[in-house]
């Protein structure tokens, strides 16, 4: 039976990928990166051990998580929804 635990070198590889992502999106809090960290660990345990493939998985997740925020920020910057006046 194989171990479900990651070795220190495997955790270091995942850590490097997360540091790269933090540098790319420095405005994001550390807590924001806990979900993609779990995603990378689960993928590694599922057999995705190639650093390039894990990097691609992380980039896709970040695009999905961050791009909608940019649209919302832009919408807010352009006035957002009109506010209703109190009657």
Structural features, described:
The structure is a single chain. The protein has helices at 8-24, 34-45, 51-77. It has 87 residues and is mainly α.
What's a quick, concise take on this entry?
The protein has 87 residues and is mainly alpha-helical. The protein has helices at residues 8-24, 34-45, 51-77.
User: Would you count the extended β strands for me?
Assistant: 0
Largest sheet: none
What is the ordering of alpha helices and beta strands?
Answer: HHH
Question: Span from first to last CA?
Answer: 69 Å
- Estimate what percentage of residues fall within beta strands: under 5%
Query: Can you give the helix content as a percent range?
Result: 55-70%
Structural class: mainly alpha
Number of helices: 3
Mean pLDDT: 83
Low-confidence segments, given as residue ranges, are: none
Can you tag this structure with a few keywords?
87 residues; 64% helix; mainly alpha; single chain; 3 helices
